[in-house]
Amino acid sequence: MQTSKRVLLRCAVAACALLAIGAGAGSYPAYLISLAMVNVIAAVGLNLLVGNSGQISLCHSSFMAVGAYSSSLLASTVGLPFWASIPAGALVAAIVGALLGLPARRLSGIYLALATLGFLQIVQIIIEEFSDITGGVRGLNTAKPALLGTPLTSYGIYCAVTVVCVAAVWLAINIKRSRIGREFDAVRLSPHAAQALGISVARVKLTAFSLSAGYAGLAGGLFAILVGFIDPNEFGIGSSLKQLTYIVVGGLGSIGGSVVGAALLSGLPELLRPIKEYTDFAAALILLAALLFMPHGLAAAWHRVTPKRGKTTGDVPA
Amino acid sequence: MNDFFRATLRSAILATLPLAALAQQAGVTADSVTIGAFGPISGPASYIGLAGRDGAALAFKEINDAGGVNGRKIRMIFEDDAHSPARALAAAKKLVEQDKVFMLMSVGGSNATAGTIDYVKEKGLPMYVSIASAPGVTYPFARTLFRGGTTETARYGELYAEYLSEAYKAKHIVILSGREEYPRNEGDATVAKLKEWFNSAPAARIEFNVGDKDFTPQLSAAQRANPDVIAFFGNPAEAALALRQARDLGVKAPFFVGANIVDPAFITAARGAAEGTKGFSLVPVLPGSKLPEMVQWEAKWRKEYPSASVGRPNNFDLIAYADAYVVADALKRAGPSLTKDSFIAALEATRDYKVNGLATSRTFSTKHHIGNLTLVPMEVRSGTWEPVPWSSTHQSDILKRYE
Amino acid sequence: MQASFYLQLAIAGISVGSVYALIALSIVVPFKASGVLNFGQGELATLGAYAALVLSQYGLPYYVVAPVVIVSGAVIGLVMERVLIRPIIKAPAFTVVIATFAIGLAIKSAIALHWGDTPFSVEGPFGDEPIVAGGLRLNPTSLWIVFCAVAITALVGCFFKYARPGKAMRAVSINPEAATLMGIKVNGSYRWAWAISSSIGALAGLLVAPVVGINPEIGGLILRGLVAAVLGGFSSVYGAVIGGIAVGLLETFAAVGLGGTVKNLAPFLVLLLLLVFRPYGLFGSREIHRV
To answer: Which residue has the higher pLDDT, C282 or A191?
Structure first.
């Protein structure tokens, strides 16, 4: 386990490295990296819920939608600048996540999965029905982010995404080590034992849902300014399932795993561009191969291969 | 510096400007011009992108074999957009910044294309949109964006409303549309024009969801409205299912279908029930027709793509093929010193151009970039789509807002 | 007029519900036997439908096509189980589900690559002419689907109750260690489970192809099948069928009463309500740990 100073240092170094790369690279690679970072934020949040707290969620992309649409609408109707509208969107998503967490407290396994699936349908319907506000199935042009009057360049957006992504990962690492993180683990491993120890499982589940929804909302808001155009299709069941594959391949419970899993798998279609229409098939096979050869995820495979330094617990370190 | 020196310097700079402009013109060399194209070749909309790509590629190949344009061969680089705005933007960025293309051609869907519009405008690159009906392409007017094969959404509404009211003389029109972008737009546009031009409203407006397999509830509701005609907007598979179920249930009203359903696949899937269905087509002749010109065209298409799947070539092959020729024609008229400006000017000078009898003509102007306002009414007769002798008598309102 | 209108709707609901029931059945069987939720069952139905297409293009009659599809479905299930599932059975359950999802994706994209998105159709085994009886119009293929759904469920139910391999599967699902001590080969039990569920899935595709059309998106039915399975209690074979029919009826009547918007939501809402009062579905018996 690393000290919190070392974690902070590593995150700062990562941020600087990413910012430097983005400055040198063209707008196309920077855009791709930004998309990957948005997926990382969403995946890290989902991992807190699924990997650490052991809850299942099929509606993570719906929270991204909530964040994306609310931050876009706050920016265009009330005129909030992006550095306020995106956190506001994340907050809205977190509140909605808590609302879902309330009935979800009493459910688990396949029942919880279907409840979240139902929630996903509800969000899709709301987006489509209120099309005067959301643009409906036709999509919505999102407000251009600007700082002090000047519009952000694509590098400016890249910097914003980088800073938020690194901060989100850093926060997740700290959550995982804090009391909340330990409560998540307890609830995952044995809800009965946790309850017996005085942990309110219901409260923990609520926190987990709310927190992961907030992460997704943040990712959604960033996605909206990155692409400039959103439609409900981007936030459907396919997207939720993709995010689940990121954290499963990365290694459930491992933050580093989620980061690498999300970055690799979300970037995979771009890498597969040369094979044109065979991308879907190849991606499915790659996913299958990853699961067959590393059923406990990249993180576990990595720790099998690299020598361990010092004492480690049975749990997978961040 | 004295005046003479300054004058000489000025002339020297002015003399090199055209060369400089040529040197700076991305995607153009002495013997080639590179076009970047994108569309969905993976995911559920791949039948659009694959056809768009193959149709355009065939056209460009023919043009190159005949010598190219002004001695330049046309090189097309195609990227997948997976029917998503985020991926379409990635494709556009790659084509513009990595492949340094001269212009973009979109054979993708509406939302995906919409995701690229701001970027393309910012880069000042010409983009020719062949299949998407995203409104942002043509309104507000943008100097570098052009819409070719597909027509404006409002135009569907105009023609559908007129045909339903005047050709069917329908008193009770039931609109049955899917909750997806394109069918919803068709439905909305039809309702709007029924009200505006004919002061009427549909007897019922019923929706179904993507992926629905049973239309009994919707058809029963439709039946209760006593329809003279059921206007169905969705995709060919849904239309075929709904039509068969309608006949099973004893719903006798004829079906009028949206433009993307006027496709041979609809007839195959609907089996016998399709007979008598009408709709407007974006192409005057559909693949599968026995017209000699189509038979020839399909033969040369199959020669180029022998292993394509069943159901190809489809409408989008035809539309992209025609639009590729429009682009090439403008490239030629832009002249040997090819720049963005000369190309745009050449496109804007296009008047009633079409490459063969299998396409509708394109007209652009300096005021509007809406290339096609023609839809061809068709009917299923003896198992194929045949043109119907009918023409619109109402003047279109579409171009009025550009005057 | 009114009664026959509602009756017609009810028939539509039951017909479409039987489709969901078959998918639900193909999900419940492997879950009951090996605890694995097979997210790729939808794509097995797609395979079955395309198999029907290919075989019908050869002009083979239905009574030849059906057994071929059943057997090939079983074979595919066995291969899947041995090659793809058995190696990772020790992984977290969630990983296995995602693996089945990946298998489904691979199948679907392979189909789309070869046949494209063109919708095909085949004729039902009894033709397309609706049977008109007493003011009601019945599609013969839909009736056939309902009949098959009920028949297959009864067969599977009897298999679990009376046949040796079936009883073995039940034993394994309750307690694998005890079952092994009793001499039951757990691996063999898993193989049976996968073979049966895959052949049901493929057969479902074959049965529904005439009414649903043939295209790569048939696999989307799995979401409805899941709801049906959970509604029915998720480990009960009869629950799956009742759940499927319930979902079909709920959707159909919701569409008429509340419009297309709410149609998809109705089964979820009913499910959520049900779970409040009966946390193990209508007929289920799995324990839920209420904390």
So the answer is: A191
Q: Report how many domains make up chain C.
A: 1
Residue A197 lies in a domain: yes
Tell whether the model's pLDDT for residue C290 goes beyond 50: no
Cite the beta strand spans of chain C per DSSP E: 131-133, 136-138
Q: How large a percentage of chain B has pLDDT more than 70?
A: 94
Tell me whether residues C88 and A295 touch, CB distance under 8 A: yes
Find the domain containing A80 and state its range. Answer: 3-236
End-to-end Cα spacing for chain B: 51
The reply to whether C8 touches chain B by the CB within 8 Å rule is yes
- Whether C284 maps to a domain, the answer reads no
Beta strands in B87-203 (DSSP E): 103-106, 127-129, 145-147, 173-178
Does the beta-carbon distance from B90 to A35 stay under 8 Å? yes
**For B245-286, how does the pLDDT look when each residue is reduced to its tens digit (9 = 90+)?**
999 888 999 999 999 899 888 998 888 899 999 999 999 999
Phi, psi at residue B290, to the nearest 5°? -90, 0
Flag if C106 and A284 touch (Cβ within 8 Å): yes
pLDDT in tens, B322-342: 999 999 999 999 989 999 999
In a domain, C283, yes or no: no
Compute the nearest-CA separation of A126 from chain B (Å).
13
- C137 to chain A nearest CA, in Å? 33
Q: Which tokens sit at C237?
A: 């074979």
Q: What are residue B230's phi and psi, to 5 degrees? A: -110, 115
Q: Which residue of C has its CA nearest to A125?
A: C261
Q: Is residue A251 part of a domain?
A: no
Number of structural domains, chain A? 1
Assigned domain for C46 exists: yes
> To the nearest whole angstrom, how far is the Cα of A273 from the nearest Cα of chain B?
7
Alpha-carbon gap, residue B128 to B370, rounded angstroms: 10
Q: Helices C164-174 and C186-212, interaxial angle, to 10°?
A: 110
The enclosing domain of C231 has a CATH number of 1.10.3470
Pairing of strands B255-257, B384-387: unpaired
Tens digit of each residue's pLDDT (9 = 90 or more) over B140-157: 899 999 999 888 889 999
The verdict on residue C285 lying in a domain is no
Q: How confident is the model at residue C291 (pLDDT cuts 50, 70, 90)?
A: very low
**B110 and A CB contact within 8 Å:** yes
Among B317, B277, B337, B395, which Cα is nearest to B53's? B317
Could you list the residue range(s) of the whole structural domain that residue C23 is in? 2-277
Hey, are the CB atoms on A110 and C265 less than 8 Å from each other?
Answer: no
- Say yes or no: B226 contacts chain C, CB-CB below 8 A: no
Q: How many residues can be counted in chain B?
A: 403
**What's the pTM value of the predicted model, to 2 decimals?**
0.90
Among residues A8, B216, A75, the alpha carbon closest in space to that of C255 is found at B216
Q: Does B115 contact chain A (CB < 8 Å)?
A: yes
Taking contacts as CB-CB distances below 8 angstroms, the residues of chain A near B79 are: 273
Q: Which residues of chain C are at the A interface, by a Cβ-Cβ cutoff of 8 Å?
A: 37, 84, 87-88, 90-92, 94-95, 98-99, 101-103, 105-106, 109-110, 112-113, 223, 226-227, 230, 234, 261-262, 264-265, 268-269, 271-272, 275-276, 279, 288-291
The residue of B94, B95, B186, B305 whose CB has the most chain A CBs within 10 angstroms, and thus the best one to mutate to test that interface, is B94
Give per-residue pLDDT as tens, C148-166: 999 998 998 888 888 888 8
